[in-house]
């Protein structure tokens, strides 16, 4: 399965505090987050969330899926008006390589 496949879907799971990457409906990756400060519901008006960890199952590693997952999670966070504290080392490296996200990042 190619990472650019149209069957790759990233959505938020508020109950589990994570963004989920699914391929053909199967969960293959997550970005876990933790609300640091905010108000309102998690999907709106949250001020700062920490992206704690990025995980892609071993069978789907080394296909670029973590990058797709983090990019879409950051894009979603931006659409919600969130600021992101990149605790996860993968998110830190991704953000360093993609400066278009600098305006929404909060220092550790």
Provide a compact summary of the structure.
The protein has helices at 65-80, 89-97, and strands at residues 8-13, 18-23, 26-38, 46-56, 83-86.
Description:
With 108 residues, the chain is an alpha+beta fold. 23% of the residues lie in helices and 37% in strands. The chain has a five-stranded mixed beta sheet. The longest helix has 16 residues, at 65-80. It starts with 7 loop residues before the first strand and ends in an 11-residue tail after the last helix. The model has no long low-confidence stretch (mean pLDDT 88). It comes from Rhodococcoides yunnanense. It is an enzyme of class 2 (transferase). This is GNAT family N-acetyltransferase.
Please state the overall shape, judged from the principal axes of the Cα atoms: globular
Run of helices and strands: EEEEHEH
Number of helices: 2
Strand residues, percent: 35-45%
The total strand number stands at: 5
Largest sheet: 5 strands, mixed
Quaternary class: single chain
By helix and strand content, what is the structural category? alpha+beta
Low-confidence stretches: none
Query: Going across the major beta sheet, what is the strand order?
Result: 1-2-3-4-5
């Amino acid at each position: 399965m190619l990472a650019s496949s149209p069957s790759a879907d990233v959505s938020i799971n508020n109950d589990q505090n994570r963004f989920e990457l699914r391929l053909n409906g199967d969960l293959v990756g997550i970005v876990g987050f933790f609300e640091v400060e905010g108000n309102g519901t998690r999907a709106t008006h949250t001020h700062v969330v920490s992206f704690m960890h990025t995980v892609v199952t071993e069978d789907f590693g080394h296909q670029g899926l973590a990058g797709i997952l983090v990019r879409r999670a950051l894009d979603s966070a931006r659409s919600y008006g969130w600021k992101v504290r990149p605790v996860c080392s993968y998110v830190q490296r991704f953000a360093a390589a993609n400066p278009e996200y600098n305006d929404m990042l909060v220092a550790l």
